[in-house]
Task: structure prediction
Amino acid sequence: MVVSVNNLVKRYGDLVATDHLSFEVKEGEIFGLLGPNGSGKTTAINCILSLLAYDKGEINIFDKPMAPDEYGIKKDIGVIMQDVAVFDELTVYENIDYFCGLYISDKATRKGLVEEAIEFVGINDFRRFYPKKLSGGLLRRLNIACGIAHKPKLIILDEPTVAVDPQSRNNILDGIKKLNNEGATIIYTSHYMEEVEQLCSKIVIMDKGKIIAAGTKEELMAMIKLGERITAEIFNLSADNLKKIERLPNVNSIKYDEKNLFIKYSKGRHNLNTLLDFFRDNEITYGRVYSEQPTLNDVFLEITGKELRD
Amino acid sequence: MFRHIFINRLKCIIRDKVLIFWTLVFSLILATLFGMAFTNISSSENFSSIDVAVINNDAYQKNEDFRKFLKAVSEGEGKLFNIIAATKDEAEKLLDDNKIAGYIIGGPQTELVVKKSGFKQSIIKSALDGYSQTVTTLTAIIKNNPAALQNGLLEDAGGTWEYTEAVPLGTTDKPDTTVNYFYSLIAMACFYGAFIGMKEITDTQANLSKRAARLNVAPVHKLKVLTAGLLAGYVILVMEILILLAYLIFVIKVDFGKQTGYILMTCFMGCAAGITFGAFIGAAVKKGEGVKTAVLIGSTMAASFLAGMMSGGSSNIKYLVAKDIPVLAYINPITLITDALYALYYYDTHTRFFININLLSGFTILFCLLTYLIIRRRRYASI
Result:
């Protein structure tokens, strides 16, 4: 096991930031910690890294108890903090070299690793720039390069795409997949469900310091009643037809706002065909119709009764 | 690893423009202002020879003794007068044009003509009275006791006897009270190194900066990082103080006496005390960086004021503190630096100097210990 967290409790006064948190991260996984802001993700990460003192629990990394002076464990960990953590007085190259130098003493080896990291995050043209001259996206890429240059076995990324433009975000996400393909185990925290869905092989959803669901994306989807969501653009829909639609197979709930009809289905097949057949048989004129599969937000909504981004 | 951290911390500090401004440029600006303000104060205290004319008539030419007397007081480095031999008309014109303080008419009765009474005129009159009194006394002695001439009366009367020995104060030939201001400035500059100490703590403590959090997850001991950083800061601060000293000595022309080695020792100790003080404040004050900076500036300026740096009779403040609250002088590191330099300048012995240096060393060790006790924890309650 790469990381094992058992019954982790961390309190800030009366606030319980992590409430008996337990999970395991296996080698080669991209492990996602998903939850709204303040759900305890960063606190959990800081406890794992032995930055924060915690009230209760056990944390093992590479099957050894983690402690602040466990340098043997630390040398194989790379961390990308939520906030950009670089020195404004050092250039892009010097920043990466400095942080890499805390892990790799040999200058020649380090030079190669720094070049590789610069190439990996695509900031070669900016190597002599000072961080203040970089855009938000480039800064994030530099932040990542500083955390991965020493080729760690375990990489922890804490919300690395906050306030990042779409191009940089895609670059970052592609990079994480590549690192994983090269053998690194990844722990990825985010409140962006799309990213976690796209990236992670195993997902833990957190709220108020507790794990409310855990599993693969498919396992999480299977936990909820919602199977499909269909939206249809309709301008004149009678109350009678609305009642008939409500009685169609698998329909869980409907909502009509004089312009769009929203239907939620429980699990089942051919829902869209059945609905279109109904429109045709009852001569209902419709515009755009589209179907959506449930998301992690639906999982979160069904379990907690609130949106993930609330 | 230590070298790697040390070199990068050197780069970080040197490239921090705000830090360099406060620890070097600000001191140089103050030095320049002090230099401009004090240049005339010192020169106004210097004595300059008095311009005086003597009427070049027959009586003057025949009176060889009087000519010798005037020659004696208008020669050498500390001469009293600049004597100009002139006709009466020329002397009158010079007096009218304020080119001379007065003119002398030799003869049986020496006369001094002045346009107004004042300091310079009093000096001329006093010198002439002295000469006349000596001549009168000698004439009376020879008249009553002619044998005195054979016993060396004229040699005795003509010689200059000093009954009081002039001992130069301290280690310089020309003591200058304004150097106290420059001592305080050097002490303040040393203590502005506290900003460097605070920066190092901020970049080492995970609860103070994200950069430090990244350092704390690396496989390197926190104290190693801090030691390398503080050492880098110390090297830069010492360089800055050497630049300031060179600027004061070679550009502003401040005379710090002849004990260069001890002056450098004081500066090195002052830098160490300043940096460790900043590290202590950075670790002890649990507020944001703005509050820490405010505490540093406030405490440094207050300590500088009590050490006698500010104008408007602030030197009296140092004296008042030493007289009425002496303990405050002993616990103010800036006073200790200032006083160590003062002791080097004004005293022949090093007792007072070493008391100051030992106290300063004590404070440096105390700041180090307190900082260590605060930052030694391995995990943080919150970050």
Chain A is about 35% helix and 30% strand.
